[in-house]
Structures are given as C-alpha cells and as structure tokens.
Amino acid sequence: MGPANDIDLSRLIARILRRKILAIVIVVLSFAGAFAYAKFADRFYQTTTKFVYQSSAKQSGNLSALAALAGISMGGSSDDGSAYMEDIIKSTDFLSQFTGREWLIADTNKISDTLTSLTLEEFWQIEIDPAARNREKILQASIIHKILKYKYIKYEQDKKTGIISLITQFEDPKLSYDFNVAMFEELNNTLLHKMHFKASENRKFIEERLSEIKGDLRRSEEILLRFKQQNRSWNDPSIQLQESRLLRDVTINQELALQLQKQYELAKIEEAKDMPLLDVIESPRRALSYSKPRPKIVLAIGLAGGIIFGLLFALIFDLFRTESKNLMEQVEKAQKELTPHHHQ
Questions:
Q1: Where are the domains of the chain?
Q2: What is the CATH number of domain 45-89+155-282?
Q3: Residue 81 DSSP symbol
C-alpha cells in the first residue's frame, strides 16, 4: 500500500510539474492582486472606548424581596443593561440619530476641503433618486444597512471582567473618533433615560403598595381595638387565640409599612439621581494610523492562496488535458479500426 501511495504522489507531482508555468502564473497573479488591494483599498481607522456598566442590581434585589414579602411578584428581570446594550446600539431607532448628522472630515485624500462638514450620505456618495417616495426613509435604511453590514461599529464584552468595548471603524480618523464619542454619549443618555423610567415605575409601585398596606394596617388596628372592647374576659382560650391572630395581623402590617416606607424614600432618591451609568475605563483616541487593510496579512493570504489554488488548478488542468488527449486517441483508434470494414 505504501509503494502505491508513493507512485500516486509522484504522479501528482509530475502532473503539477508539467504545468508549473501555469501554477507560477496563478501565484504571481494572486500575489499581485493582494498587493494591489493592500495598496489601493480604502483604509479604515479604528477608535475604541472601553467601559463598564454600573448596575443597580442590589437595589432591584431588595425591591424584589420586599415585593415577595408583600405577596407581589416583580418578575425575574435584571437591571444589568449590558444584557441588551448591543441590541440598543444596533437598533434602527438608535442608529437613525446619526444618519442625518454632519461630520468634519480630516482625511484630505477623501475630500479637498476638510473644513466643510459632510453627512454620511455625502461622505459615502450614496445616490438615492430625489423623486423617490419616502426618500429620507430609504436613505436612512441604506446608511444603517451599510453601517451594520460592513461592521463600521462593533460591540465586544469580556465575559470575565465585564469590560465593554465600543469600536468604530471608518475611512476617516476624525469621523471614526467623533462617531465613537457621539455613540457613547447617546448610549449613556438612552440607558439613563431607561433607568430613570424604571426608577419612576419602582417608586410608583412602592407608593401604591404603601398606601394599600397603610389601609390594611388601619383596618387591622380597628378590628383589634373593637375585639378588645367587646371581649374583656381573658378566661376563654378561644378569645385569647383570636386576639393573638388579630395582633399578628397588626404586627405584620406594621412591619410591611415600615419597610415599604424605607424603600419608598430610597426609590425617591434613586429616581432623583442624575449620574452616568457607564464608567469609562479607556477613553477613545483618534487613530494615528489605519487599522485595515493590514498589508502583511493581505500579502500572506494572497501568496498562500495563490500557491494552493495554483497547484490545484495546475493538477486539474493537466488531468483534463491528459484525459482529453486519451479520449481523442481512443476515438481515432476506433475510427481506424472501423474504416477497413467499411471498405470491404
């Protein structure tokens, strides 16, 4: 089995060597294509902001526990905004805030006048028929589609540390930086608005529940008072048991009212807070050099791909030519064998 494999391998090598010029040409073309791409392709500049999300999960846990004590379920939702932050960033509503905004461009290779601000439509030279119905919506959808499809924005989170990276990559260093800063500010505002809304809902829930508990407390106190006034004899065990039950209801309502009053004050403080939810670990910096394409990687891929494709193409081409030649020889041989019989 070993010699057979050696023979087969040697035949393959022989076939490739017969077409070595073709293989070399393919390798050269592939390398030249990679070189041209690395030289003339659009260059992208990357900006990154690293931050952590300041979760208020502790207070949420307190409120959930209190709600359970009061007999009401608040659900198992978490306040960890990082769980849905990527969805916010890549949503149409969020990105639509930037599609019509104007940006200053720093790369003089792109435009001649860097003091004139441009929209993304002008920067990317997107052409939409001016007479088209809903042109603005079509334009907005086209810009958002381009941003997401070609990964102009990226969201990454380290599962161990929880550090989040907001990454922007554009064909201009200043645009990449400004877009990153604008996105971070809008993200923080969006989350802050959401947390304020949630804090307001929590405060309203506690306020309503506190009002109910205070009403229950008043009723239980009145029932206990009337019971004591009507039953002054302490000799009957059933009366003592009933009094204990009524007293327990009053005690429970008093405890609930006390805890809810504390949580109500905390909820009002939380609702009044106006602080960033995103704590910056690494501030964004304007890129000094482009991040892609990376010439060394592009050239290495072009060379490796050219070698592999060149060898395969040379082998397939030789097999095709050899089999075609054999087939033609067999056809000619068959024709010669048939010709004498035809004359006879």
A1: 12-41+293-319, 45-89+155-282
A2: 3.30.1890
A3: G
